[in-house]
Design brief:
2 helices, 3-stranded antiparallel β-sheet, 7-stranded antiparallel β-sheet, single chain, mainly beta
Length: 191
């Protein structure tokens, strides 16, 4: 009987074409002889949905009039400017957002409801290019009608990213929404 070759590795790969997700492989440990499942380093799986919210200390009508794509630069400190792109589409509003860091996004209003107080928009052009395929965002305002915050406004800002958005993109979106909602509250209160 011969001793097992402790330096021999048996490797089998599991992939898809094109590769989707981490590359998995099984190997036999040269040290223990046991099979081990290993994975290559890839992005961390994460939810692609973000929701941030805030109570804005004023009535709904004062908040709602600021929730227009072309007016975001009046309260969002990261935006240098916002302007309509004329002739982009006869049926929809497209606004160019220019951020102070040089990023430029063309955002298209997908939905608007003055009755339910929300807008939904998507990013249709980005410079520099985004690292993910798409994102749809919604800002919704609710009047607070009872309790200690009665007469104020509850605002939610959601984003639904395509499945190729990584954890860094999601956390960045979460942070930017929190910061923007704080900017909105500061604009309203004058602080």
């Amino acid at each position: 009987m011969t001793a097992p070759d402790t330096h021999h590795l048996k490797i089998s790969l599991t992939t898809s074409d094109p590769p989707q997700g981490p590359l998995q492989y099984r190997s036999i440990s040269a040290h223990t002889g046991h099979e081990v499942l290993r994975m290559s380093s890839t992005p961390i799986p994460t939810s692609t949905f973000v929701t941030e919210s805030a109570v804005i200390p004023t009535q709904l009508s004062h908040v709602w009039h600021l929730i227009k794509l072309q007016d975001f630069s009046s309260w969002w400190s990261k935006l240098q400017g916002a302007e309509f792109i004329k002739g982009a589409s006869p049926e929809t509003d497209v606004v160019k957002w220019t951020f102070k860091d040089g990023t430029v996004l063309d955002v298209k209003q997908e939905e608007h409801s003055a009755i339910d107080h929300y807008i939904t928009y998507s990013v249709i052009v980005a410079s520099p290019a985004l690292s993910y395929s798409s994102v749809i965002s919604t800002i919704r305002c609710y009047p607070i009608t009872s309790g200690t915050d009665e007469g104020q406004t509850f605002v939610t800002w959601t984003a639904n990213f395509s499945s190729d958005a990584d954890a860094g993109v999601i956390e960045d979106a979460r942070f930017k929404r929190k910061e923007a909602l704080a900017d909105l509250a500061a604009t309203i209160t004058g602080k």
